[in-house]
Specification:
The protein is α/β, with parallel strands linked by helices. It has 2 domains: 373 residues, Rossmann fold, CATH 3.40.50; 132 residues. The chain contains 17 helices and 18 strands. The protein has an 11-stranded mixed β-sheet, with helices on both faces. A 4-stranded mixed β-sheet has the order 2-1-5-4. It comes from Aquimarina intermedia.
Length: 509
Amino acid sequence: MAVLGSIIKGAIHLKDALTPEKNAVEAQQEVLQDLLSTAKNTAFGRHYKFEDILNAEDPAKLFAKAIPYFDYHTISEQWWSKLHDGESDITWPGRPPYFALSSGTTGKTSKRIPVTEAMIEAIRSAGIKQVSALSNFDLPADFFEKDIMMLGSSTDLTEKEDHLEGEISGISASNIPNWFRNYYKPGENIAKIDDWDERVSEIAKNAEQWDIGALSGIPSWMELMMQEVINYHKLETIHDIWPNLQVYTSGGVAFQPYEKSFNSLLRHPITVIDTYLASEGFMAYQERPETTSMRLITDNGIYFEFVPFKPEYINQDGSITQDAPSIGLKDVQLHQDYVLLISTVSGAWRYLIGDTIEFTDLDRSEIKITGRTKFFLNVVGSQLSVNKMNTAIQELEEKFNLEVPEFTLAAVRIDDEFYHSWYLGTKTDVDNDVLAQFLDKSLQTANKNYRVARSKALKGIKVTSIDPALFYDWNEKNKKKGGQVKMERVMGEEKFGEWERFIKEKQTV
């Protein structure tokens, strides 16, 4: 009998039973009050008169009126850049001990996002909430004695002036609590290896020593790691070396496009749990098995606002117009796409994180990520979201028995006519024209705006099937392998031109 596992599982159940559940709307009001109170004497807080907002009859209303929207570039240029000049007390008291580097899904230049001690504690607290939620899943007691493979970025952070820099997964892993270190794999020595291929090679060599019960990381890179382990040990599936693997915690991107290729590496199904951890904070986690939606963490250092996701509020670069209306948690509606705004204990204020979400359960504050503002393809009125793209790809996989773990597309002009040009990462003999016709029909069925655009200026879809490995080569060329790196689903004209030249060069080598 798994005695330790039974004790841990029982302790989790007891903690949940003894911890009263906070009202989410009231919790958000308290978070906003705490944020404003803590930062009122910073340069940002004095500039935007946080003291007046705190004394207002409706602080949330005045907060939304007094402070503009910020994306990374505007808040960095106007405020966070002062931190790099050696100043303190800019958007949060003191100076941050960490900066999270993130190139996101666009651009080669890394963003440098401050990470405060308060945010480290908030991420740790959110992680404990997520572990506690495992009691809602039907997992045996011995699961709680197994190792957890966290495949993130290197924990060998770069020391710069008075702070450390690295990707958020590396920063988080370097701050795991002592009690968790015995369960954490691949362990500190391997986790510090900066080169992705070398780190995965070491994981493969040491895989037999570990009894992995759970995996955590971005799906695309997790697949590559599992495939390397399988190839190194000449196995059929990952369960042949880790028979007790029962849980995969996904995060950062939608899991659905990877589901088929991911499952092909398994002997039997495992429990997939979604999380929402970004460089700016830990926003949500899947709390129960009846849904794939995630519960917003409303009492943990992040204040949320929501802008209705409508074309008239979205600028061409993916930012939002300053006249776009925002609402708080108490006013959101079901199944309406919203642009997510956050204010945090790291000194982000009314910050556009770049994701769009929808609420699937108001009482539980449960959401799904539906896409990215930058990946909203609205050329000639098609209003095509990443969520609709993912659904169409899943239907394509089922129809033609394909695996399409990666794809990207752009609106292109050919002889003065617009097309959507898709590149699908898949190995198939199905003709590209057949795939294009199916995608086109699927999108017209699911999206009225796309159907209207197809009857007017949008002439159709073009599909090019390529080796999925080329997507990883592209990421390596433009950013870095592994860690938090994600593939951009929609490209602008200039980037798409670079992409097509890259693919042609790789295919002619």
